[in-house]
Amino acid sequence: MTGVALLLAARFVEVGLEAGLTHKHENGASPRKLMMEAFGSGVAAFDFDGDSRVDLFFVNGADVARGKPSPGHKLYRNLGGMKFAPALTIRGNGSFGTGVTVGDHDRDGRPDLYITGFGANQLLRNPGGLRFEDVTANARLAAGGWSSSAGFLDYDRDGHLDLFVARYLDYDPTDDQPCGFRKAGYRMYCDPRMYDGKADLLFRNRGDGTFANVSREAGIANPAGKGLGVAIGDIDDDGWPDI
User: Fold this and answer.
1) Alpha-carbon torsion (70, 191, 150, 100), positive or negative
2) Which of 113, 162, 191, 219 has its CA 20 to 30 A from that of 89?
3) For position 6, what pLDDT does the model report?
4) Alpha-carbon torsion (229, 33, 90, 14), positive or negative
5) Is pLDDT of 181 > 80?
6) What pTM did the predictor assign?
């Protein structure tokens, strides 16, 4: 009976709007039923300003079918007392954002962000002072294709955070397959088995602000992967991070 009582006592209450979290996700839903429209986008919980309170960063999608860019990713600052306030809007790079991971890639003591998406990814450096700098081009981390999620890890244990990027389908919205019932004029989202996969990526941190693509050397460049999520941990206790 104790287990039953604990189960009945456990519940969650929606307090998002009351807490000030007004973010609205843009999925660009259209009659074309593009594959990325069926996706939500990720969120990161981290202390971006070093005040010991967990802030929230929401990744946003875009209206791809109508050619409208993302309304922007949103950072909410934790004010304490279960209250949040919009602190920053990052307009993004025109891609449909899907995931985000947090890590101090340049070892300056401040957490940085890496945003994955359909189109191109973004590395955002946290220099302090309520702003982020887009250092993607210099770091050589745009990746391309449809990146679903990512994770920072020191895979070679050299003290610098490397980056693993999971990628999903080899998909082109300008040449998407019409799925559904043609005679009735009804379209639906296609089965992902209709498309080839995109190989995952592993980037080694050189320690100078740039990354090298070591996917082939590491043996993870499998084009049939169709990756969606990433988990990192030392599953066999040998001291090396597994993916």
Assistant:
1) positive
2) 162
3) 60
4) negative
5) no
6) 0.92
